[in-house]
Amino acid sequence: MLKLKKGVLLIDQHDKNYMYGGKFGGNFIPETLKKPIEDLTNLFGRLRYDKNFIKERDYYFKNYVGAPTPFIKLENLTKHLGGAQVYAKVVSKANGGAHKIYNAVVHALICKRAGKKYIVGDTGAGYAGKMLSMAAKKFGLKCKIFMGAKDIKRQKPNCDAMRKNGAEIVPVYSGSQTLVDAVSECMRYWVSNCDTTHMAVGSTVGPNIFIKICAWSTAQISRELIVQLKEEFGGVPKKLKLINCVGGGSSAAGFWNEFIDYNKSQVELIGVEAGGPKNSKLHAAPLTFGSKIGILHGAAQYVIQDKDGQIGETSSISAGLDYPGISPLHCFLKDTKRARYTSASDEEALQAYKLVSKLEDLSPSLEPSHAFAEAIKIAPKLSKDTIICVNSCGDAKKDRAIITKRLGFFR
Amino acid sequence: MISKINLAFSQCKKENRPALLTYTVAGDNTKKKSLEILNAIAPYVDILEIGIPHNTPVADGGQIQTSAYRAIKNGIKVKDIFKIVKQFKKNNLNKPVILMGYYNTIFQLGERSFLKHCKRSDVDGLIVVDLPWPENKNFANKCKKQSINFIQLLSPTTSDIRMKNIIKDSHDMVYYISMLSTTGGRLKVSAKEILKNYNKIKKINPKQNVVIGFGITEKTISSLTKADGLVVGSALCKTISGALSRGTNPVRTAENMVKKLRSKII
Ligand SMILES: Cc1ncc(COP(=O)(O)O)c(C=O)c1O
Fold first, then answer.
1. What does the mean pLDDT of chain B come to?
2. How far apart are CA B89 and CA B3, in angstroms?
3. Spatial distance between the Cα atoms of A213 and A219, rounded to a whole number of angstroms
4. ∠ CA(A350), CA(A352), CA(A353), 5° rounding?
5. Where are the domains of chain B?
6. Per CATH, the architecture of A67-97+220-407 is what?
């Protein structure tokens, strides 16, 4: 069995080929990208230990992103479920409404240090794109966002925000017209423009350096949480469960970062993938349903695919989770058994949204609604001294049309 | 033993012209048609690259994507591609064939099994777009043991030291990517600039066969005839797409185009 190293950041647990556990990640990239990726790797390798850079990051996290985001007890939901105490880390209160702001800000700062004026990124739910457009505007960069045509339709509010921030949205019509195609198209664009342009991958996927930058950025979430836990409980609770939705896995990686070294009997990490429509064979849950290892977007990972290695079709009500692969970091956490992965169906996520938004002053987007679905499933069976914390990493405004159509109401 | 790829280059050198290499996608638009296209163009081509269609190609532009998606939609499977090569070789015993694709295809079949299939169908070389040096060392060695050419790529972003290392680990041919682009881009740098980089590569090892690809069309090909070989891919795929959408015969259209390309380099 694969083993995690104690005292080493998750992102740094790779070998010299940038593989985690010898089988996940790496850099399966065209020759043209070798140099820009090497340059970026060196630059970030320096910046992450540069005191001024850290100071700058922390300044913007505090004053621009808004740190810390609230950590709240969901009293009514806890009472309703009648088991574990349910809390939420309300990351959706961050500027822009989701955790994607951390990665976006850090990429914009790196882009400036690299002396580049253009920044490009992919997006599914539109949050990664929206946040990159915000950061680009703030730091005076020209921004282009690649987005599947299907997602442009289903996540209109975020597209409006991107355009308002002056970013160009490039619709991607190939394949399934969702996130997977947006990432491919963005990488292709970078191949052609890597001399002038910085690329920000929207999640903990892609060639290794993008996984690192992204998880390093979202780690802010768990740095805040650990302080908040100590304030609330006087320490990290004896029975803690951290539940997070996983699409590419950036939100979960950030939520868990500080807790990896804790014993899993104390801090259990639970990742919730998109199970897709209840009556469909399609899903976006490669870990839950045992997909094989393959190469997607430059990294080896568990990925939905056929025998020939063609990437498989996915389906999810949540554009942000609708991705056939998953971060190599999560593949590694799964195989080391440090985290447990499960899925929630479209319908379960919708019901979770309904319950949470009715009982609490909270309106989680469809992505974290998947995490709430798991909390709702397990809380009643758990003891009163168990603490469940859900990362409510996105705000539902972008999903208003979908939720209204499916549930007949919107909070 | 001298490889067929090497023989092809020697022959071209004797004729004092660059080798013409084509790239077409296996199974585009059907298995049968793609084999017919290969058979029809072979007399005018020195080395044939056959693309293994992949549905998440990170280095291919619109034209090759269109061809690849069409082939996949029409049901092409990896095993069919080996059958196509085998069939092709029945009539074209000495024409070198290079398969070009993405590593996931090889990874799913397994490196050993993939190479066994290559051997059985008489594949001469492989280009794996997303398996760069040095990560490719292991697989490149496995290819060499089977007398299959593993063809390394070089690009305008490749540093000098890296270039030396890659060339040192190369087999009978290297592929220089003319510009920063996916396949199918418009040639955005001058022929002079491309040839400058080309000469740099040749200087490292004058005996190495170096071909240039990306952005080469009927219009641009004659400006680069100093190279050992020139690859035309997207332009050909685009022509095939055009014929299909007009409802004309893609086999004849492709053949005519390749004839014209050939006339421009001799
Ligand atoms: C609110 C929200 N949560 C989760 C995700 C899934 O991405 P990841 O798994 O990288 O956090 C997205 C992606 O767009 C998102 O917008």
1. 97
2. 15
3. 10
4. 65
5. 4-265
6. 3-Layer(aba) Sandwich (3.40)
- B132: nearest CB among A31, A194, A297: A31
Atom number in ligand 1 closest to CA A393? 1
For residue A125, give the 3-state DSSP assignment. coil
Say what the pTM is. 0.97
CA of A212 to the centre of ligand 1 (A): 16
Q: CA separation (Å) from B214 to A80, B163, B187?
A: 63, 19, 8
Give the span between the Cα atoms of B156 and A261, in whole angstroms: 44
Residues A120 and A197 sit within 8 Å (Cβ to Cβ): yes
Q: What tokens appear for A122 in the block?
A: 């992919």
Which protein residue has the closest C-alpha to ligand 1 atom 7? A247
Helix (H/G/I), strand (E/B), else coil: A141: coil
CA–CA dist A10, A326 (Å, integer): 15
Nearest to B181 among A175, A192, A307 (CB): A192
| Segments making up each domain of chain A, as ranges | 29-61+100-215, 67-97+220-407
Tokens read off for A154: 């289903």
Annotate B91-117 with DSSP letters as a single string.
H-TTS-EEEEE-HHHHHHH-HHHHHHH
Instruction: Return the H-helix or E-strand segment holding B32.
Output: helix B31-41
Amino acid occupying residue A216: W
- C-beta separation of B37 from B254 below 8 A: yes
* Residue whose structure tokens are 């066969």: B209
Which top CATH class is A29-61+100-215?
Answer: alpha beta
Q: Measured in angstroms, how far is the CA atom of residue A342 from the centroid of ligand 1?
A: 16
ipTM for the whole complex: 0.97
Return the closest-CA partner of residue A367 out of A302, A316, A301, A304. Answer: A316
**Using CA atoms, how far apart are residues B257 and B253, in angstroms rounded to an integer?**
6
Question: Tokens 């302080």 map to which residue?
Answer: A227
Same fold, A29-61+100-215 and A67-97+220-407: yes
Type and span of the H or E element at B143: helix B137-145
* Active-site annotation holder among B49, B122, B172, B228: B49
- β-bridge partners, A24: A20
> Known catalytic residue: B122?
no
Residue spans of chain A under pLDDT 70: none
Strands (E), A267-338: 267-276, 293-296, 299-302
Taking the Cβ of residue A381 and every Cβ of chain B, the question of whether any pair is shorter than 8 Å is answered with: no
Whether pLDDT at B241 is above 90 = yes
Q: What is the rounded CA–CA span in Å between residue B127 and residue B51?
A: 9
Interval B44-101: pLDDT, tens:
999 999 999 999 999 999 999 999 999 999 999 999 999 999 999 999 999 999 999 9
Residue A193: closest CA among chain B residues belongs to which residue? B180
The partner residue sitting opposite B132, judged by closest CB among A34, A194, A195, is A34
The DSSP secondary structure of A363-389, one letter per residue, reads: -B-HHHHHHHHHHHHHGGGS-TT-EEE
CATH of B4-265, one of 3.40.50.10090, 3.20.20.70, 3.40.50.10490, 3.40.50.1000: 3.20.20.70
∠ CA B232-B237-B239, rounded to 5°: 100
- With CA atoms as reference, report the closest residue to A28 among B167, B106, B14: B106
B132 contact residues in A (CB cutoff 8 A): 27, 29-31, 34
By three-state DSSP, how is residue A222 classified? helix
A26 at interface of B, judged by CB pairs closer than 8 A: yes
Helices (H) and strands (E) in chain A, counts: 15, 14
pLDDT value of residue A221 = 98
